[in-house]
Amino acid sequence: MKRSGAGTKHKIRVMNKASKNRLTPKQLPLFTGTTLFDKVARAVCRAGTLPRKELYESWEVARRVRRRYRGGRVVDIAGGHGLLAHLMLLLDDSSAAAEVIDPNIPDNAAILSDTIIEAWPRLRDRIHYHQSSLEEFSLSADDLVVSVHACGFLTDDVLQKAVTVGARVAVLPCCHHLDGAATGGLEGWVDGPLAVDLMRAERLRLAGYTITTSTILADITPKNRLLMANPNPLQTTGTIHG
Question: How large is the average pLDDT for residues 122-137?
């Protein structure tokens, strides 16, 4: 007699990190560990405001940037809910504050922020939201400018704004608009979006920056190229040409 279940295959469900569905308290059992990531993920679930994809994107960017750059006021451009800004302070408490800049701050961003601050009270009064354009916000050389998926040419504006004051900067570009973009004639060797990002890196180098390139996991987003740039010690301010 065949035993019940014999010969059957048990499927292992793999979490879809790229899901745009919101994390809610129902997903709390997915994050039962004791790591900082699990603790943040549980706060995000309790808030019930953020897509799963944004949790993983923000975490992967924040930890890579903080491996390279410490301290400084964090300026999260096109920051949306502001999770990246919170993570940057959690990973390095030497940054006094973080500013979230976005012309369309989500109505429920405060819910996410309050939930995270409830878990980490030391963040209270250190995260500030500014519903404004990039042009309306002033940067300084001590800032650490970060931006995840600033659409199209907005990534170039972020880079130029940082270079103008000589600030450190890290971007995860997306939505490459090839019409009018600088590709350096590289499309014969590489695809258009990669050519755009290569030229961005080269322009930063020519502006006096040291470049670091990395990627986040492709199962989170295919737009996964992380470009980080630090001004050389003798660099003050400059302009990206091209």
Answer: 96
